[in-house]
Predict the 3D structure of the following.
Amino acid sequence: MQVADPILQTKNLNVYYADKRVVTDVTLDIVRNRITAIIGPSGCGKSTLLRCFNRMNDLIPTARISGQVLFEGQDLYAPSVDPTEIRYQIGMVFQRPNPFPKSVFDNVAFGPRINGFKGNIDELVEQSLHRAALWDEVKDRLNSSALALSGGQQQRLCIARALAVQPRVILMDEPCSALDPIATLAIEELMRELSEEYSIVIVTHNMQQAARVSHFTAFLMADDTRIGHVVEYGESRQIFTNPQDERTEAYITGRFG
């Protein structure tokens, strides 16, 4: 599926760990200001693909790619590109909440401070916490340890921390898997609100979650040699109600995976 104005693109992307290819020939256009879900069974390369979008795989010594990953038309893997700068523009929220052992305020202020932010840090922290739907719950405990927050609050704090560096894209790797149903619904509602300003890519095992929150869905699976590839990609309502590939239908109806 091609779109008129993608914010992220992969073109014939292959990912390797040492000599082992784990993802093959992925060509995707990620739509601007929409939520794109990446679904598929364990071991099909979902998180590996997600980490290509902000070069987190660079932190794995044996990882390498072929093909292209483009952000606003720029090759993210060009020699002149600083991966640290990319990670400010393409933020990431991980599977388990990982607040720093600092105060709530210092968690949100951390990124802007090390990035040389010159504006009003108090306003930026408040704005980021508002956007993460957390301000009302923590405004009277900004100097308290972030580790004292509930799991759902910690995950929203991590989203606020990502927002504070003013990214263009937010990557989320199973952001609700460690949360209870109430916290999960809060994160899902937040994602829908954020998609008006940010482009979001989420990896999830939860089919209901993908169907609820995403505008577009890519289904990955691994072949007999455990190499992941895209089986089908399209609008979520089509993927979940009228999949074009029988393997997609088998997966979303629970017949495998």
